[in-house]
């Protein structure tokens, strides 16, 4: 099952997607500029193999809901996210606000 819903953070609307898969759940919240995602996100791949795409993204591990993803500290971020001031340890919702 796939769930798509709006998420409000400080009067800004983001898009949350939950994908229920066997034995795991994929979670992501995005803006027009970038996104945060659960531990399934491969930040190293984005930084190395897809560097030319300049992807703005952050990864949080150990989250099981969209709410947890928004509150969790980011474990890693892409190089292009860092150019916006997004850093590891930053809460997911704070990173999203920098992606506006």
Report on the structure:
By secondary structure, the protein is of the alpha+beta class. Helices cover 22% and strands 33% of the residues. It has four helices and six strands. Strands 1-2-3-4-5-6 form a six-stranded mixed beta sheet. The chain is globular, with a radius of gyration of 12 Å.
- Strand proportion, as a percent range, falls in 25-35%
Distance from N terminus to C terminus (CA atoms, Å) equals: 28 Å
Largest sheet: 6 strands, mixed
The share of residues in helices is 10-25%
**Using only CA atoms, what is the Rg?**
12 Å
Low-confidence stretches: none
Oligomer: single chain
Class per helix and strand makeup: alpha+beta
- Helices, by number, come to 4
Instruction: Write down the secondary-structure element order.
Output: EEEEHEHEHH
Shape: globular
Could you report the average pLDDT, rounded to the nearest whole number? 97
Short description:
With 100 residues, the protein is of the alpha+beta class. Helices cover 22% and strands 33% of the residues. The chain is globular, with a radius of gyration of 12 Å.
Q: How would you describe this structure in keywords?
A:
single chain; 100 residues; alpha+beta; 6-stranded mixed sheet; 4 helices; 6 strands; 22% helix
Write the layout of secondary structure elements.
Blueprint: E1 2-9, E2 12-21, E3 24-30, E4 35-37, H1 43-48, E5 57-59, H2 66-71, E6 76-77, H3 79-82, H4 92-97
Parallel strand pairs: 4-5
Antiparallel strand pairs: 1-2, 2-3, 3-4, 5-6
């Amino acid at each position: 099952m796939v769930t798509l819903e709006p998420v409000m953070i400080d009067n800004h609307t983001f898009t949350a997607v939950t994908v229920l898969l066997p034995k795991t759940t994929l979670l992501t919240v995005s803006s027009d500029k970038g996104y945060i995602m659960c531990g399934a996100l491969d930040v190293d791949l984005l930084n190395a193999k897809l560097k030319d795409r300049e992807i703005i993204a952050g990864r949080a591990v150990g989250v099981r809901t969209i709410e947890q993803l928004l509150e969790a500290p980011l474990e890693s971020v892409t190089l292009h996210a860092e150019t916006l001031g997004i850093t590891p340890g930053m809460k997911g919702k704070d990173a999203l606000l920098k992606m506006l």
